[in-house]
Design goal:
Strand content: 35-45%
CATH superfamily of the domain at 8-33 and 85-168: START domain
Structural class: alpha+beta
Helix content: 25-40%
Mean pLDDT: 94
Largest sheet: 7 strands, antiparallel
Distance between the termini: 33 Å
Radius of gyration: 16 Å
Order of helices and strands: EHEEEEEEHH
Protein name: SRPBCC family protein
CATH architecture of the domain at 8-33 and 85-168: 2-Layer Sandwich
InterPro entries: Polyketide_cyclase/dehydratase, START-like_dom_sf
Pfam family, one: Polyketide_cyc2
Number of strands: 7
CATH class of the domain at 8-33 and 85-168: Alpha Beta
Length: 170
């Protein structure tokens, strides 16, 4: 929990991991198909590939449509910044050079299965959360803490859902 007491400019990170009874090659399709992600998220509502793409490739992009009770509804374009099947899949939100957030899945062979880790970093570019901080700058650390806790809980649920789907497909 590197984000306890963090400010937005600190680019706090969060992660969640699980072990899956399946090879990285069996896990990869569940990680790299971003259109499946809304099934595993209460915030992400739908995802569309851009430019006629039907799957991940380095430099590709997709639009995610999200909804949050406190933050409203919004969409963001994400750019794939790492794509090494079946090991790493990562995307930068809004701008690949200066993202509002970066998300990554890492798949590592471990004990006859796969250690799946989901990681994210907030910032460095301003995001929707920045507007809440602008309105209540004295509460920045609490705002960042609450949002990072939401991300962490969502990632715990996501890696658990991927584990369930991979293992059920065996």
């Amino acid at each position: 929990m590197e984000w306890t007491g963090a400010r937005y400019a600190d680019k706090p990170t969060a992660e969640a991991a699980t072990w899956i009874d399946g090879a990285p090659e069996a896990v990869w399709p569940f990680v790299a198909d971003v259109q499946r992600m809304p099934e595993m998220s209460s915030e992400l509502q739908r995802v569309e590939w851009c430019g006629g793409a039907t799957g991940p490739k380095l430099g590709g992009s997709f639009v995610g449509y999200s909804k949050h009770d406190a933050l409203g509804e919004w969409s963001t374009t994400s750019f794939i910044v790492e794509c090494e099947e079946p090991r790493v899949f990562a995307w930068a939100v809004a701008d690949p050079e200066t993202p509002t957030a970066t998300w990554r899945f890492t798949l590592e062979p471990e004990n006859g299965g796969t250690k799946l880790t989901q990681w994210m970093q907030m910032g460095p570019a301003r995001s929707g959360l920045s507007f809440a901080i602008d309105r209540m700058p004295d509460k920045e650390q609490k705002i960042v803490f609450v949002r990072m806790r939401e991300f962490e809980n969502a990632m715990i649920a996501t890696v658990a859902a991927i584990k369930d789907r991979v293992e059920a497909a065996r």
